[in-house]
Automatic annotation (TrEMBL):
Lineage per the UniProt record: Bacteria, Pseudomonadati, Pseudomonadota, Alphaproteobacteria, Rhodospirillales
Keywords, in A-Z order: Hydrolase, Iron, Metal-binding, Protein biosynthesis
Name recorded for this polypeptide: Peptide deformylase
Function: Removes the formyl group from the N-terminal Met of newly synthesized proteins. Requires at least a dipeptide for an efficient rate of reaction. N-terminal L-methionine is a prerequisite for activity but the enzyme has broad specificity at other positions.
Active site (record annotation): 137
Binding site for Fe cation: 94, 136, 140
Catalytic reaction annotation: N-terminal N-formyl-L-methionyl-[peptide] + H2O = N-terminal L-methionyl-[peptide] + formate
Family: Belongs to the polypeptide deformylase family.
NCBIfam families: pept_deformyl, PRK00150.1-3
Domain of life: Bacteria
Species for this entry: Nisaea acidiphila
Length: 179
């Protein structure tokens, strides 16, 4: 966070099937895996190009809609279209803002398109976590970090502190007074 490349719109990739793009995708996948992430955009490693890598782990897949899990995916020049106005809040972290988490509203259902590393068109519906990771990574391509999407900054902090605070909050009864 603070690197100027993360604040600008990344440039389009002319040939998604080039060896240079394949090498970039491999480097991104290695960087993501080394950091224990589930998504990474090229600007996060200092390259202002429109390419993301991501996966949907089995424990984050949406079973009720059969959306995932997904092994490593590469998407070049992605474009997102919300399929409804329905938004949902979810906790996000980011490899560019280590240790911090925030509750971010995202579209629940999206359509995304772009290209794979063979230059073939990709067109796919996504819901839940799958939709969230795509939106998060495409935001990076547009120079947006997730705190800019947050609506309640009280829901932003260090992951361990947020968990500790949540554990200390007594349950609220019907009167709303916690007694």
């Amino acid at each position: 966070m603070g690197d100027p490349v993360l604040r600008q719109r990344a440039g389009e990739i002319e040939d998604p099937s080039s060896e240079e793009v394949a090498a970039l995708a491999a480097d991104m996948a290695d960087s993501m895996a080394a950091a224990g992430g589930v998504g990474l955009a090229a600007p996060q490693i200092g390259i202002s190009r429109r390419i993301i890598v991501f996966k949907v782990p089995a424990d984050r897949a949406t079973a009720e809609t059969n959306d995932g899990p997904l092994d490593l995916q590469v998407l070049v020049n992605p474009v997102i279209e919300p399929l409804s106005g329905e938004m949902e809040l979810g906790w996000e972290g980011c490899l560019s803002i280590p240790g911090l988490k925030g509750e971010v509203p995202r579209y629940r259902k999206i359509l995304y398109r772009g290209y794979d590393l063979n230059g073939e068109k990709v067109l796919r519906h996504a819901e839940g976590f799958h939709a969230r990771v795509i939106q998060h990574e495409v935001d990076h391509l547009d120079g947006i970090l997730y705190p800019e999407r947050m609506t309640d900054m009280r829901r932003f902090g260090y992951g361990e502190e947020l968990l500790r605070a949540a554990a200390e909050v007594p349950p609220v009864n019907e009167r709303g007074d916690g007694k």
